[in-house]
């Protein structure tokens, strides 16, 4: 895997986002790399905020920022025309641009010209840095956990990062394996799996989780969902290639339909777990579900605890919100490490 060397600290660009889920890159960097973020920059009318100081690129540069990170990910991953003046402002202020979008910064002529003129870098995290073979299905040493979900954008990355931290606190050797642009920006390495040609996704997942010591855990950030009509392909390739020993099913409390496709209902948790395990057994017959990670950000403490208890009883397994932590999350960690 290629180790990225990104210019830091960052100024987080929120574009014209009005839905916090579309700003998940910025939110992830705030939560897991906050010491490397000096502030946020947004277009007029934006209602989303990271809570960091709102700065112009020039003000951020004066505070030591080295790069502006595009912190939003609209459907399709396309650099929006309305962002161009702001991105040019950042280049002129002395900042490099870092992007995890599908649109390559270097493919935007006005940005390419400005960067060349100003001596600034355009860094595309999604740009492939190596090629991968097709998957082999070969069993590998070490232990693997994959976070999966009923949908996209509901907490798979946060769950994986939280589990790695909890494993390490228990003295367990563990590595966070990033598979998305935000995870790669946080960890500095990984594979942006949806930038890999479809035939090689499983092979890329195998390369991401190589042979390891028998007591070492690779905790892999899941992508998309087997139940999302648009993104199921990358999820299945990642599932087969990582060959997880344990999956953790992620869900957002109250979400009923697929994000961005309201005509498609989400499956129930039991159905989602059963389908995922059935498919995962193709490359690891011994796979099991360690429990459920439930995003309860919209609920009160009391309502969240009641729902977590309900799901735990109905499913017969731990159900926790990693952000809230507590005894329920400890139970989830213990179950994941069992056996």
UniProtKB/TrEMBL annotation:
Domain D-glutamate N-acetyltransferase-like C-terminal: 134-327
InterPro entries in the cross-refs: DgcN-like, DgcN-like_C, DgcN-like_N, P-loop_NTPase
Domain of life assignment: Bacteria
Domain D-glutamate N-acetyltransferase-like N-terminal: 49-128
Protein name: EBNA-1 nuclear protein
Source organism of this protein record: Steroidobacter agaridevorans
């Amino acid at each position: 895997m290629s180790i990225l060397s990104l210019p830091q600290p960052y100024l987080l660009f929120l574009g014209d986002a009005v839905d916090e889920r579309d700003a998940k890159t910025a939110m992830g960097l705030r939560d897991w790399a906050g010491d490397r973020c000096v502030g946020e920059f947004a277009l007029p009318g934006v209602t989303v905020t990271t809570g960091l100081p709102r700065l112009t690129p020039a003000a951020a540069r004066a505070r030591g920022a080295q790069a502006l990170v595009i912190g939003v990910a609209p459907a399709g991953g396309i650099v929006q025309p309305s962002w161009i003046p702001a991105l040019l402002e950042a280049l002129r202020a002395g900042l490099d641009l870092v992007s995890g979008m599908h649109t390559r910064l270097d493919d935007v002529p006005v940005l390419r010209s400005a960067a060349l003129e100003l001596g600034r870098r355009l860094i595309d995290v999604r740009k492939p840095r190596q090629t991968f073979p097709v998957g082999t299905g070969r069993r590998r040493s070490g232990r693997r956990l994959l976070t999966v979900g009923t949908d996209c954008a509901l907490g798979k990355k946060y769950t994986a990062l939280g589990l790695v931290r909890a494993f390490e606190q228990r003295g367990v050797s563990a590595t966070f394996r990033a598979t998305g642009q935000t995870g790669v920006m946080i960890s500095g390495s990984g594979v942006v799996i949806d930038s890999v040609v479809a035939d090689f996704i499983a092979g890329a997942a195998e390369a991401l989780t190589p042979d390891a010591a028998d007591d070492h855990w690779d905790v892999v950030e899941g992508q998309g969902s087997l139940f999302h009509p648009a993104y199921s392909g990358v999820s299945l390739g990642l599932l087969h290639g990582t060959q997880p020993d344990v999956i953790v099913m992620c869900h957002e409390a109250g979400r009923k339909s697929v994000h961005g496709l309201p005509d498609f209902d989400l499956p129930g948790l039991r159905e989602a777990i059963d389908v995922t395990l059935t498919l995962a057994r193709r490359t690891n017959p011994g796979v099991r579900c360690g429990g459920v990670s439930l995003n309860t950000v919209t609920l009160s403490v009391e309502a969240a605890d009641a729902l977590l208890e309900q799901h735990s009883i109905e499913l017969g397994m731990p159900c926790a919100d990693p952000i809230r932590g507590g005894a329920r999350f400890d139970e989830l960690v213990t179950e994941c490490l069992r056996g």
